[in-house]
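hey can u check if this looks right to u? its 518 residues, i copy pasted from the old doc so theres a chance i mangled smth
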Amino acid sequence: MAPAADPGVEPGVDPSFDPRTGEQHGSVPHTAPEQVAEILRRALGAAPRIAGTSPATREAWLAAVADALRAHEDELVQLAGEETGLGADRLRGELAKCAASTVFYGAVAAEGSYLGAGTEGIGGDSTLSRWNIPVGPVAVFGASNFPFGFGVIGHDVASALGAGCPVVVKAHPAHPRLSVRLAELVADALDRAGAPVGSYALVVGFDAGLQLVDAAEITAVAFTGSQGGGMALVERAAARGVPVFAEMGTVNPVFVTTDAAADSAGIAAGFVGSFTLGAGQFCTKPGLLFAPAGAGLFDAVRAQLGQVPRAPLLTAGIARGYRAGLAGLARAAEATGAEVTGAEASAAATDIPVEPTDGYAVDPRALLVRLEDLHPGSRLLEECFGPVALICEYADAAGALDALVRLQPSLVASVFTGGPGDPESVEVVARLLGQVGRVALNAWPTGVATSWSMQHGGPWPATSRSDATSVGAGALDRFVRPVAVQNADSAHLPAALHPDNPWRIPRRIDGRLTLPTA
């Protein structure tokens, strides 16, 4: 979501705002259509060269990018702080993770199993060989809430480069100056490491982004952001049959079993810490907690919220959306006799100001709602981006679980149990797996590990593609497609299937998995 337009800002630029004060500090010009066209031409020209490089070579490119990020840590953290208000400690941690994940995706490429390479005899003298090839130039639309992790560089960009695809990134208007500087560093690092011209580029501006989606050169789109933005891209790209891997987020549930409720104070503290982390601007924020009636979770959350200070949201638009969304949730909750708590909890919903008074800072809130009011189409279940969450107390675990699995799917769920042997936990986890991409047991959902087994996705409307992940080794799979050649001789096969295995990757030969020798 873009910052509110400033009447004093000239058209054709993305203005840069400080969320802590609301003041503008500079702007970045939009990329002209002819410049976008040239960027796309270069990306298309680079595509076969990048695809033909060994995965180990691409690993070296990504390592060079990570080194550049680390070398400019102080500069990048300061610039990100000026445009996001997220705080130096949070931003340093995110930048460090971004560098580490960039290296990780290079290692996944070099390991080679994502290529799915295999060959076999199919009767007589016939053979069949199959492997994955890069799809070509990829457009990436980064997120406002993770300027390093899902921005100009991050999971989408690094996994696409690792898979062998050129990348064209659209700068997010929430942090345009940071986007430009990051793009300069990434492009320079790739150039110094020997990547072909056209491997990576940045465009700025809404119209430039649309030009990417419409361009014949672009073969896939990766997006992290709102459901409205993601679905608009899906619909626009559908005209060309281009896949859009949109991670959009929804209301992520937490289920506390009867046995787990004995630690209501600890769960309340963790819940508040998780849904207010980063001012509640995580796609993995827990938004709806189910707890046994009488466990005192709402009262415990109320006490914890009193210790959480106001914090700025990323943009004026997000702050307005939070305040308006919170007012709508509060009206819906109060209409059913539910309770609202948090800073200024006694204020009526209509008293919540729509315009920020100190930058884009907002208060965290929690709402106690009734189980019978949680049903498809309920206003209470609409995502509100920011530090607000719902708590629902249940008298019967089976009834609460029935209600939970009728709700719209989401990215992730947490389940808190009483430990091994908890009689409710097995059914809760099994039923939630039909609703989410990941279930976190006795852990909060906001942590996402960059690893071989991570799944960061979920059924629609959490994502546009439930078969994909935007984090972890499986992220490369979005940017390759399988091909096969029958009766190929060595001249027709890629290095991935050459008899000498020059890329040193695992392959399946005549149905048997074979690993590269040392």
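The longest strand covers residues 127-134.
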